[in-house]
Amino acid sequence: MRRIALLATILVALAPLSGVFANAATLDGGESDLLAQVNSFRASRGLATLVISDSLTVAAKWMATDMAVNNYFQHTSLDGRSPTQRMADAGYPAFSTWAGEDLAAGYTSAALVLQGWINSPTHLAVLTNPAYRAIGIGRAYSSASQYGWYWDADFGGIADGGVAARVSFDQGFHSTWAGQSADPTLSPGQTATLVVALRNTGYRGWYLGSPGQQANLGTSAPLDATHPEFGVGNRLAAQSTSYVGPGQVGWFQFQIQAPSTPGTYRLDARGVIDGTMWLEDAGVYWTIAVR
Fold it and tell me: Taking the complete model, does pTM exceed 0.70, yes or no?
């Protein structure tokens, strides 16, 4: 059983600042769950709902990933930056408003994270601070780390949205093409199994069954297109093994059914970490001949 740990810090700036806006952030399932639970808890205390901030989420995701990958747990990141500095570097006016950070490690669900924070006076003080209006949430996992799961919630006194953050956040997921099955020639209604291999060229692993960390094969050209002519939707397959580490090859296998009308068809595919990002477009496609 992994150990669990909590850290909290409250940061106060001296003067308010008019809002700086950022695009809506993308949260995975666990992060979205924590957002809902934090706001439900605050509502039970008569406190304002926190809106998701893209810039705060950039800061939170970066910190959670950095702790998981580099196996440490503290508010000051290994590059020497404080929470306030990381928020500011992500485009949030952290030095000019209220700001705070709650961290958790070793907890496997949002409900457990929130309960741990509620049970801690210092974390509870952050959760119930009436000055907060915005939040950013990030979580990351590394099987090689002490705690496994790492969570970060960054809080701010200004609700921002609209202008992109000043930094580019590398979420650590990347891939290249490593091979695929040949183009099939089929009779109308005949089925075929297609396979593609993608090499994990990022610094984060792909975990089957873990929201925001599972690698899938999605349709592309255009992205997320459904293909009823082949009997498939917009997700063709999930990774075939439980874990694909950096440098390893993940395999994706799925079945199609040939259209009833003879002709030449094309099916494009691309790797995706749902709830997080699309992987690089490796130009994966099959030309399907129906005779």
Answer: no
